[in-house]
Design goal:
This protein is mostly beta strands. The protein has a single domain, classed as Roll (Pnp Oxidase, Chain A). Helix content is about 10%, strand content about 40%. The strands form 4 sheets. It has a 7-stranded antiparallel beta sheet with strand order 3-2-6-9-10-5-4. The chain is globular, with a radius of gyration of 18 Å. The two termini are about 15 Å apart.
């Protein structure tokens, strides 16, 4: 198949539809971030790239903490609302029920089936427009009904993902193979 060159694009698909929690002016604030991903395994670290203009940044820097909440697909309207409206103009503290973990100051959304509580470790300035917040995951919370056989049942969690190619929220599809196993078969020969 012929390939077309499209120039440098952020076409990494899918991306998380992550709900970020931070305490801003002593109340929970929620925002949506797709530019979010793991950066290290041990200790577990996550990176979050946000435009400097986001209201949430102030809370992350001041409290030294934030949460990354993974919503299920049934939360799509509430999640998208938190991505459309700024905390500067609307109090979004009631959009989700906040709970707190070991840090005591990183609001997490109880409605989301998976929550990562993060301690801010570093802020990196990007080209004057963005800030990369690097957080250490200090605790992970999951709905107890999703913990099956010593692991999270991802299919039942039904995590929401985002595809930047078409600006759509999507669900995960069926399993196609077991990682670090399916490739052990002999490669095809032609």
């Amino acid at each position: 198949m012929e390939k077309m060159a499209l120039g440098p694009r952020t076409f990494l698909c899918p991306m998380p539809a992550a709900l970020i929690g931070s305490a801003v002016h002593d109340r929970p604030n929620w925002m949506v971030a797709a530019y979010c991903g793991l950066v290290q395994h041990d200790p577990p670290m996550i990176g979050l790239s946000l435009a400097k203009t986001h209201y949430t940044n102030e809370g992350i820097r001041k409290s030294g903490s934030f949460s990354v909440n993974i919503p299920s697909s049934d939360l799509v309207e509430r999640l998208d609302h938190c991505g459309i409206v700024s905390g500067r103009t609307e109090d979004k503290s009631g959009c989700f029920s906040a709970f707190y973990g070991v840090l005591g100051n990183a609001p997490m959304a109880a409605e989301c089936p998976l929550n990562l509580e993060c301690r801010l470790r570093q802020v990196v300035d990007f080209l004057g427009t963005n800030e990369l917040f690097i957080g250490e995951i200090v605790e992970t919370y999951v709905n107890s009904d999703l913990w099956v056989g010593g692991k999270v049942d991802v299919a039942r969690m039904d995590p929401l993902v985002f595809t930047v190619l078409d600006s759509l929220y999507r669900r995960l599809g069926p399993v196609v193979g077991k990682a670090w196993e399916i490739g052990r078969c002999a490669p095809p020969t032609d």
